[in-house]
Specification:
The complex is a heterodimer of chains A (108) and B (120). Chain A contains no helices and nine strands. With 108 residues, chain A is mainly beta. In chain A, a hairpin with a 6-residue loop joins strand 3 and strand 4. Chain B has 120 residues and is mainly β. In chain B, the strands form two sheets. In chain B, strands 2, 4, 5, 6, 9, 10 and 11 form a seven-stranded mixed beta sheet that branches. The radius of gyration of chain B is 13 Å and the shape is globular. The chains are: A mainly beta (108), B mainly beta (120). Chains A and B meet through strand 3, strand 7 and strand 8 of A and strand 5 and strand 10 of B.
Chain lengths: 108, 120
């Protein structure tokens, strides 16, 4: 079955760039979606189909997907970006949605 | 404005049953698939079940297959999750999420969740 591997934590200084990976064999063949969840809140959709931003999501947030790795990139990181981030794909072999384990972003 | 609001979570004993509801507004409910996702205390997101807009297709995580049933009443704009044979490991906040299309697709709006606690 599909298992999406994310680093448990990423730390970055304000104003720098954070990159969060999501890995699985041939993930580049699938559409990857990214969600942000702040403590005590519901998740929100950040990126759809690898790199599309829903309306209201700032353009300093971007996504890419190739080979075995999908990446969420947050440029000019702000304190308000501290949150948990999850990647998600549809596994058409099993007809299951799969979430990555999540990455906690800490702004130093 | 799109809104989904979960209800029905409470403390229940091991082996018991519970039905969660999700009231939707601000969109044409029958045109979109709907989903349940849960999050155990201090843990990550776990997909539970999905249902197409027409109620034709349902999908379940292996961990709940045969115990949980997802359904919807398009006349009431409401999504349900019938949970039977509950286990302690089902303890979690259960989120309702709207899909972007009528069948399998990403989750574009989420509710705030309802807490289910299963205890012996």
């Amino acid at each position: 079955s599909y298992v999406l591997t994310q680093p448990p934590s990423v730390s970055v200084a304000p104003g720098k760039t954070a990159r969060i990976s999501c890995k699985e064999d041939n993930i580049g063949d699938k559409g990857v979606h990214w969600y942000q969840q702040k403590p005590g809140q519901a998740p929100i959709l950040l990126i759809s189909y690898d790199s599309d931003r829903p309306s209201g999501i700032p353009d300093r947030i971007s996504g890419s997907n190739s080979g075995n790795t999908a990446t969420l990139t947050i440029s000019r990181v702000e304190a308000g970006d501290e949150a948990d981030y999850y990647c998600q794909v549809w596994d058409s072999t099993t007809d299951h949605w799969v979430f990555g384990g999540g990455t906690k972003l800490t702004v130093l | 404005e799109v809104q989904v609001l979960e209800s029905g979570g409470r403390l229940v004993q091991t082996g018991g049953s519970l039905r969660l509801s999700c009231a939707a507004s601000g969109f044409t409910f029958s045109n979109f698939a709907m989903n349940w996702v849960r999050q155990a205390p201090g843990k990550g997101l776990e997909w539970v079940a999905s249902i197409s807009g027409t109620d034709v297709n349902t999908y379940y995580a292996d961990s709940v297959e045969g115990r949980f049933t997802i359904s919807r009443d398009n006349s009431k704009n409401t999504l349900y999750l019938q949970m039977d044979s509950l286990r302690t490991e089902d303890t979690a906040v259960y989120f309702c999420a709207k899909s972007r299309r009528m069948d399998v697709s990403l989750f574009d709006y989420w509710g705030q969740g309802t807490l289910v606690t299963v205890s012996s």
